[in-house]
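seq:
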Amino acid sequence: MKAVHLNDYISFNVNANVAIHVDSLISANITVYTYVYPTKDGGFKTDAMDCEIDWLLNGERVKSEGFRDLYTKLYGEDKLHKLQKDVCTEAEKLIELRVSNKFKDIINEELK
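struct:
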């Protein structure tokens, strides 16, 4: 039996925190779990794996279940799902932009 090294493929996981201001009452702190991989042109792209949302009302953190119940009673379940999707999408876009523009700098900062 003989083993031969073919190549290396290096990838990263980035867990980033993002604050989203929805309106004058609602904001969210979001943790985005993202897989980062190199592109053929020497840059980096992301693939978001998960998104966790901590809701805030008037700047104070509230229980997720309580927020879900309140929002659903006021606006319905479809609007809650749309809100969740929208804040996660916005957070993921921010991380994609940050990684595509500054990932090498982020890595250098972490290695110091």
